[in-house]
Each structure stands twice: as C-alpha cells, then as structure tokens.
Amino acid sequence: MVQYDYEIYSLMSYPTYQGESDVVFKIVYQLVATSGSARATYNEYSTVGLDVAYQSGSSFVPYDQLTKDIVVGWIESTLGQEEANKVKNKLKNTIESQTLTQVVLPLPFGN
C-alpha cells in the first residue's frame, strides 16, 4: 500500500493584505510517496501559488494558527482532484518500478 505525505518547506506571505497580517500566497512543498522501504518524491521542490489564502469576506486563519492539514487542503484544492491523482499515480508507478526484481539474463543468442 502506498502512503502519501506532503512535506511543507515554506509559506510565502504578504505582510498585510486586505487588513489581515501574514497572508499566505505561495506554498513550497514536495509530495512524498512511500511503500515499505521504497520512497519516491514528486520533484525536489514544487510550488503552488494560491489566488491568496484569504479573500475578503471569507474566514481567515491567522498565520500562527495554521496547521499542516489546512495547508495541505490549500495545495490539493489548488491542484484539483485530477492533477493530484495524476501526481500520486506517477509516484505509485515509480515506487512499483523500483520494487520490481530485476535480473540480468544472458543473451539468448551468441555474440
């Protein structure tokens, strides 16, 4: 079974935006897939730009109250289900190819 985890490297934010402080507009992350001892990563770095994590009139989560689950929700929402599934399938295929037993056979014909 393949498990997926987002590693968040940094959150880029505007010091002030529409009356709020430290409003996130970009996330630097990588998606990591693991299965047993096999591990695959999607790019060394990925970024996702948000329209802005806060729109006037919507609920605002202060920077010091952000959780990984909230940030991952922003990533997946921005990527969209189809793109997120495409990335996860690519990682799954990479792991499966790494775990296949490979054997070098002698040539079935002479040199």
Architecture overview:
The protein is α+β, with helices and mostly antiparallel strands and 111 residues long. 28% of the residues lie in helices and 39% in strands. The protein contains two helices and three strands. It has helices spanning 68-79, 81-99; strands at 3-17, 20-35, 38-49. The chain has a three-stranded antiparallel β-sheet with strand order 1-2-3, with helices on one face. A hairpin with a 2-residue loop joins strand 1 and strand 2 (20-35). The chain is elongated, with a radius of gyration of 20 Å. The termini are far apart. 10% of the residues are buried. The mean pLDDT is 83.
Helix/strand layout:
Elements: E1 3-17, E2 20-35, E3 38-49, H1 68-79, H2 81-99
Antiparallel strand pairs: 1-2, 2-3
- Uncertain runs: none
Helical segment count: 2
Order of helices and strands: EEEHH
* Number of strand elements: 3
Share of residues in helices: 25-40%
Order of adjacent strands in the largest pleated sheet? 1-2-3
- Approximate shape: elongated
Supply the helix-strand structural class: alpha+beta
Rg calc: 20 Å
Distance between the termini: 43 Å
Strand content: 35-45%
